[in-house]
Specification:
CATH class: Mainly Beta
Strand content: 35-45%
Strand order of the largest sheet: 4-5-2-3-9-8
CATH topology: Hypothetical Protein Aq_1857, Chain: A
Low-confidence stretches: 1-13, 125-141
Shape: globular
Number of domains: 1
Distance between the termini: 42 Å
Mean pLDDT: 77
Largest sheet: 6 strands, mixed
Structural class: alpha+beta
Length: 141
């Protein structure tokens, strides 16, 4: 079995796509409890932002066809098949400090990130055709 086959299998089973820190999981569970008709955390990427891709975190009713669904720290997480390879090995954390508050994604696949941390570029340099200028967070990077 080649390393590529093993890598593909780990993406399909969700085991190494995205992990949540205990702080992120606690915050997500609390937010889900406040929402109506949502049961999963959707982690995604989309074209755009000042570095090529930007992260998306949100709640959803469930997995869609083709999504990878898995449990992490007591939270059901779904990732679409386009996003999975770019998010593989990422960790979602929740920070609450004097300087920043919110979710932060540590992505080992990112070789460059915007100053705001909301967008990133991957090693192979592929940028989606719809990548725009600026990530919408007010930064100019």
């Amino acid at each position: 079995m080649s390393p590529m086959e093993i890598q593909e299998r780990s993406v399909l089973d969700g085991g190494s796509i995205v992990s949540l820190t205990p702080a992120a999981a606690e915050k997500i569970r609390g937010l889900i409890e406040q929402e109506t008709d949502v049961s999963v955390l959707r982690v995604a990427i989309e074209g755009g932002g000042c570095s090529g891709f930007q992260y998306g975190l949100g709640f959803d009713h469930g997995a869609q066809e083709g999504d990878v669904e898995f449990q992490c720290e007591g939270v059901t997480v779904v990732v679409d098949p386009f996003s999975a390879p770019y998010l593989r090995g990422s960790t979602v954390d929740y920070l609450e400090t004097i300087q920043e508050s919110g979710f932060k994604i540590d992505n080992p696949n990112a070789v460059a990130s915007c100053g705001c941390g909301h967008s990133f570029q991957v090693a192979d340099g592929e940028q989606p055709a719809d990548a725009g200028a600026g990530c919408g967070s007010g930064c100019s990077h």
